[in-house]
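dumping this here so i dont lose it
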């Protein structure tokens, strides 16, 4: 009986000890907080915060973050209003003990400066009997919504398509395209051919924007693309894709649909936004990480002949996509413009 009370006494003594007496000194512990988006954010965009202890271990799950003194649920916050904010954090050490972060994040938040644009890439062919359906729906959508662009990526299939794009097989392989037609929205998923689907993308905000300026004098094409960043995006691996496409191309189009009067084939069907040439790597050229910071303008420039794949330079147009990701880069924002024009962001 005496032995039992002895062990109970030892247990109570241990439980009653503070952390210093148990070999844990809260004052000797430290941790830091950070966001992969640095200190410049935009409203309506999910901003994650993380915490690491002095040994570099991730302790985010045991930390509560505060924005201007208000606790954040989890480690992701969406700022509703522009302004200056202070992000702090406390580490729950257990037993009622907390430790404040060694530093804070002093963040500047602005409203997004760049409209959101969307691109739908139509994997198609003049031989494809069901492709007029997507042609028609894209024509209707882009006519109603100027912030939606399209590209027609032709595959010769088992027949001869005069607008075959040499990189179509690679793109189809990367993005899992197995049939025609297949409309790919923002290189993220298959477009369901409904305007509401595109609207979901248009209603989201983007942390960067693009502008295009081009001139062609009959011999020399001068093409400049600029990317401007609203946030610090040095950790995400951004790339720039720049293509040339062409409008007003005529060729008979196979048709097994009721669209365009149900005629089969449709003689001299006008094919627009036909992808003709890639100035960059097909999936994009990397943008140096130090360029992907708030308010910086990254510039890409081409000066040389009009790509020979473009049969009528007067019908040329250019598409620039900001993408991120390695194996399957997704579109962040995009801009498209005819030759001899200059766009805004």
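and the seq i came up w/
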């Amino acid at each position: 009986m005496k032995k039992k009370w002895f062990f109970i006494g030892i247990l109570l003594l241990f439980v009653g000890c503070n952390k210093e007496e148990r070999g844990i000194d809260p004052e000797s512990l430290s941790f830091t907080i950070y966001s992969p988006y640095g200190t410049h954010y935009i409203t309506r965009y999910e901003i994650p915060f993380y915490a690491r202890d002095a040994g570099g271990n991730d302790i985010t799950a045991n930390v509560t973050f505060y924005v201007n003194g208000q606790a954040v649920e989890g480690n992701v916050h969406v700022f509703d209003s522009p302004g200056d904010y202070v992000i702090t954090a406390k580490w729950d050490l257990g037993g009622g003990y907390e430790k404040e972060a060694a530093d804070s994040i002093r963040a500047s938040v602005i409203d997004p400066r760049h409209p959101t644009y969307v691109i739908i890439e139509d994997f198609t062919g003049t031989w494809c009997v069901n492709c007029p359906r997507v042609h028609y729906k894209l024509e209707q959508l882009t006519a109603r919504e100027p912030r939606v662009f399209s590209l027609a990526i032709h595959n010769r299939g088992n027949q001869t398509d005069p607008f075959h794009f040499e990189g179509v097989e690679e793109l189809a392989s990367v993005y899992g395209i197995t049939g025609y037609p297949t409309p790919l929205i923002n290189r993220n998923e298959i477009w369901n051919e409904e305007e509401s689907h595109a609207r979901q993308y248009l209603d989201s905000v983007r942390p960067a924007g693009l502008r295009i300026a081009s001139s062609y004098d009959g011999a020399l094409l001068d093409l400049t693309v600029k990317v401007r960043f609203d946030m610090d995006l040095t950790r995400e691996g951004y790339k720039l894709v720049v293509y040339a496409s062409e409008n007003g191309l005529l060729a008979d189009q196979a048709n097994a649909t009721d669209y365009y009067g149900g005629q089969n084939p449709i003689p001299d069907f006008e094919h627009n936004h036909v992808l003709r040439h890639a100035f960059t790597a097909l999936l994009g050229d990397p943008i140096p990480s130090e360029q992907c910071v708030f308010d910086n303008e990254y510039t890409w420039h081409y000066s040389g002949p009009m790509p020979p794949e473009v049969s009528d330079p007067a019908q040329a147009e250019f598409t620039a996509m900001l993408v991120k990701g390695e194996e399957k880069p997704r579109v962040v924002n995009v801009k498209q413009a005819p030759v001899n024009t200059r766009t805004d962001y």
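Helices lie at 2-16, 131-144, 168-174, 195-202.
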